[in-house]
Amino acid sequence: MTNYPYYIAVRYNAGILIKIEFGVKNGRKFKTLFDCAEAVKRYQTRFPITDEQQILILEYSDQYESKIIEICQGDMWTSVAVPIKLM
Hints:
Elements: E1 6-13, E2 16-19, H1 33-46, E3 54-62, E4 65-73, E5 76-86
Antiparallel strand pairs: 1-2, 1-3, 3-4, 4-5
């Protein structure tokens, strides 16, 4: 049973969202936005190439309902004021 909401980080590459795995086969789910953001920051320090890529943090509120919460590229972090619902 999955507990909602949870957060995941994805790379945005040519219009495709690719999960960041963080060493786990199917990607990692985080209970809080803060935990997910900290994992992204650690990921960026380990892999400097990610400074050129956009990383999105998604909040899942139900099985097929997610919203973009944060967008980051390098040191620039942008919080989405009105979350965008992905269908």
